[in-house]
Amino acid sequence: MTTMTLELDDSKAQALRERARSVGREPEQLLAEFIDQLLNQPGTEIDEAMDYVLAKNRELYRRLA
């Protein structure tokens, strides 16, 4: 298993905790479920989403490398 780190600003982290709590999950579980759903989407939707995330966070990924 691989561990990944995600940086969120405080407001997004709080919103994630609240959303996870509202559905009876831990934030990490909620993110893992979202990623599973994202990866199981057919075709171009996932490609577009991945391209968007990679472009948006390019500098962060470069610094983490």
Name the descriptors.
65 residues, mainly alpha
Short structural description:
By secondary structure, the protein is mainly alpha-helical. The protein has helices at 10-22, 27-39, 44-56, 58-64.
Would you report the number of β strands? 0
Tally of helical segments: 4
From the helix content, strand content and strand pairing, which structural class follows? mainly alpha
Overall, the morphology is globular
- Ranges where pLDDT stays below 50 over 5 or more residues in a row are none
How much is the radius of gyration in Å?
13 Å
Mean of pLDDT: 86
Estimated share of beta-strand residues: under 5%
Cα separation of the termini? 19 Å
Q: Please give the domain count.
A: 1
Helical content, roughly?
over 70%
Biggest sheet record: none
Write the H/E string, N to C.
HHHH
Structure characterization notes:
- There is one protein chain.
- With 65 residues, this protein is mainly alpha-helical.
- The chain is built from four helices and no strands.
- The chain has helices at residues 10-22, 27-39, 44-56, 58-64.
